[in-house]
Amino acid sequence: MSREISIFLDTNILQTFLGNKTGSNVFLNSLGIRSQFHELTNFIAENRLERLVELCIPEVVVLEMKHHMTTGFSRQCQKLEADLSAHKKVFDAIFDQSAVDLKYDRESYRAYVDSLLEDFFRTPKNLAKLVPFPRSGSVLEILVGKALAGTPPFFSGAIGGKTHSDAGFKDAMIAETICAYSQEYGRLCVYVSRDHDFIQGFDKAIQPDSKFVLFPSIEVAIPALAEYYETDFGAKRVREFTESTYWHEFLLEQAGARLDDSVTDCRVESVSRLEDDVFGIRMVFVVNEANYVFQIKFDSGVNDILGLEYHIEND
After folding, report:
1. Is the pLDDT score of 82 beyond 90?
2. What is the pTM of this model?
3. What is the rounded CA–CA span in Å between residue 59 and residue 254?
4. Are the C-beta atoms of 10 and 172 separated by less than 8 Å?
5. Residue 310 pairs with which residues in a beta bridge?
6. 3-state secondary structure string across the chain
7. How confident is residue 102, by pLDDT bands cut at 50, 70 and 90?
């Protein structure tokens, strides 16, 4: 029987960054949730895995997202004020600074960011669960010991010409959050992060005896989950095709018919895999008591028909 899985997402997986350097700029009017996150929630919903798979957002990640947005807001406000001052000197009397206005000041913007996060966790389709970090004194002692020893995910080395052994506190807090959650609920914990510090104690694939697994991206995580839970992307695409009104209308139009009350039956008689993403589908529509029989070559990878033939029986 497949185990229940808790998927923890890092900031660099959840939040969109603008520019080449992580953390340089983020969206300020929204959380900037990456499209891959929604691909993951769609995969869970489409395969009815909500009771087996949950999406966990560590509290540290939420705090980091808030920090990125509030500091970014302050930085952009300063830049805007400098730009407006320069423009005012150029335009002088014909410059109307009141025409450029922000809805929030720095204090009210913090409340706005809080409201965005509350809406994110309240929205059912996001399947997101906020997981607080452990607050016991023993956890702090563990982290201090790891920091002094330079144990991953802490970094021991030179940063900017200065030697540090306490870098990676955020990552360590996430690791302890995952560990505590696993101990409390006994679930298989998957962490999705671009960081390479999480090596010790994390498997690179879901094994029968795995306790912690690390994936570098959602694009890697989804196929791994599909294999583990034995879902079939191609079969799902075929199901969507055979249930789609759009495709039904398209097929009947090829045979000079229409999808209306004259169609009294529609059935899929057979499906066979011809290649990795290519399926052969035999469908029958009953139109005015005549059987419209279609042989379809469907590519689930590109969601398109590669070829089709049809004939009419009992016309």
Report:
1. no
2. 0.64
3. 55
4. no
5. 294
6. CCCCEEEEECHHHHECECCCCCCCCECCCCCCECHHHHHHHHHHHHCCCCCCEEEEEEHHHHHHHHHHHHHHHHHHHHHHHHHHHHHHHHHHHHCCHHHCCCCCCHHHHHHHHHHHHHHHHHCHHHCEEEECCCCCHHHHHHHHHHHHHCCCCCEEEEECCEEEEEECHHHHHHHHHHHHHHHHHCCEEEEECCCCCCCCCCECCCCCCCCEEEECCHHHHHHHHHHHCCCCHHHHHHHHHHHCHHHHHHHHHHCCCCCCCCEEEEEEEEEEECCCCEEEEEEEEEECCEEEEEEEEEECCCCEEEEEEEEEECC
7. confident
- Please report where in the chains the tokens 């087996």 appear, as a residue: 52
Cα angle 108-114-119, degrees, rounded to a multiple of 5:
130
In 75-187 the beta strands, taken as DSSP E runs, fall at 128-131, 155-159, 162-167
Are the C-beta atoms of residues 134 and 176 closer than 8 Å to each other? yes
Peptide bond connecting 58 to the previous residue in cis, omega within 30 degrees of 0: no
Judged against a pLDDT cut of 90, whether residue 152 lies above it is answered with no
247-295 residue pLDDT tens: 999 999 999 999 999 999 998 888 888 888 898 999 999 999 999 999 9
101: confidence class by pLDDT, cuts 50, 70, 90? low
Which residue type, as a one-letter code, is found at position 216? P
Count of Cβ atoms closer than 10 Å to residue 175 Cβ: 26
- 3-state DSSP call for residue 262? coil
Residues 172 and 150 sit within 8 Å (Cβ to Cβ): no
Whether 249 and 241 have beta carbons less than 8 Å apart is answered as no
**Token pair for residue 241?**
């095709």
Q: Scanning the structure block, which residue is given the tokens 């000079």?
A: 256
Residue-wise pLDDT tens digits, 167-196? 467 777 888 888 889 989 999 999 999 876
Q: What is the DSSP letter of 244?
A: -
* The two three-digit tokens of residue 78, written as one number: 């300063």
